[in-house]
Amino acid sequence: MTHQNSGGHYEISGAQHRPAAATAAAGHGISTGTLSSSCITMAVFFGTGDLGDVGRHVVEAALAVPASVLGEIRVFSKSLETLSESNWSCGCQRQHGMFTPMASQTELQQRRRLVLHNIDISRESVTSHLVGVDVIISCLGNRTPFHSDYLAKVGTANILQSMAALNINHILMLSSVGISEDWPPLEWAVEEGKRLQGHFRTICWMQYQDLSAAEILLNELRQRKPGMRSLVVRAVLLNETDNPTGHWYVQQQKNVDHPNCRLAKMDCACFLVQEAIQPTIVDRAIVLGGVPPPADQHLNRMNRTDEEEEEDHDEDDDDE
Predict the structure, then answer these.
(1) Mind listing the pLDDT tens digit of every residue in the chain (320 residues)?
(2) What is the DSSP letter of 180?
């Protein structure tokens, strides 16, 4: 099943029909839909590297959501100054920079919702800063070679400890393809997959272990805390040259269907914000990528049909 939202990239569209359980999804824009509450408070954590770049885009995408839907946005990072940089290592084809003198009145009004916390999450507790938060988006960790910003494990432990203390029940965590049961990464793209495997086994071994440990911590808390909603988003390649399309694709099943192995950082951010506001996928780890080309979409449908037929045949055998 695919699902399409209307609206431009990180624009806000009107009420949308959402499936009860999203599997493969081609998304477009941020749909606010019909919400259970009138206004929520969000916390965003980001570090450096490619996942941190997505975190910066999450902040921008969140600001595009009306204040009547998403109120206060609390941002946590020891790299807050990067929000003022014009280059966010992305393919957005425009200048970023949130606190420039050229900001419009509308932008300045939107940014009044931001509460910035210049904090080293590896050393400082965040519990007191998360009081009243409804949902958390964590973009800690990285996949950048020779990069020593290993914040995924220690930062996630800090966040989860605060969630348990404050009874916060909703978190989305950005991670990577190839973690845990998703190994090997990018199984449908031989060249890119082997290159990423090589990185994870050598120059990005520490980054891989850091992200793996963060996912384990989240799974452990979810098992101990009934009623908690979580989503682990394992992103495909997040390159600096990929332009946002306003679309994304959620893999249904490993080795059955697949997304494009590249995804724009803004599109990844928009997906995270949309799922934070109006969750359709919970208590799962998913692979998120770009929408595959038409030929691959047809192959995905054929593979899923074959898989469903095999499952039906197995059920018939069991009945006999």
Answers:
(1) 333 332 223 332 222 222 223 334 555 555 544 344 469 999 999 999 999 999 999 999 999 999 999 999 999 999 999 998 888 889 887 878 776 665 666 666 677 899 999 999 999 999 999 999 999 999 999 998 887 789 999 999 999 999 999 999 999 999 999 999 999 999 999 999 999 999 999 999 999 999 999 999 999 999 998 889 999 999 999 988 999 999 999 999 999 999 999 999 999 999 999 999 999 999 999 999 999 988 666 666 767 665 555 555 555 555 55
(2) G
Tell me how far apart the alpha carbons of residues 282 and 133 are, in angstroms, rounded to a whole number: 18
Q: Which helix (H) or strand (E) holds 42?
A: strand 40-46
Q: Is 237 helix (H, G, I), strand (E, B) or coil?
A: strand
What's the CA gap between 4 and 247, in Å, rounded? 8
CB 32, CB 277: distance < 8 Å = yes
Residue 26 per-residue DSSP state: E
CA-CA-CA-CA torsion sign (127, 128, 132, 137): negative
Of residues 1, 9, 7, the one with CA closest to residue 270: 9
Q: Is 212 helix (H, G, I), strand (E, B) or coil?
A: helix
Q: Which of 75, 201, 199, 205 is nearest to 150 (CA)?
A: 205
Strand, helix or coil at 41?
A: strand
Q: What is the pTM of this model?
A: 0.84
- The three-state DSSP-derived secondary structure of 118-179 is ECCCCCCCCHHHCCCCCEEEEECCCCCCCCCCCCHHHHHHHHHHHHHHHCCCEEEEEEECCC
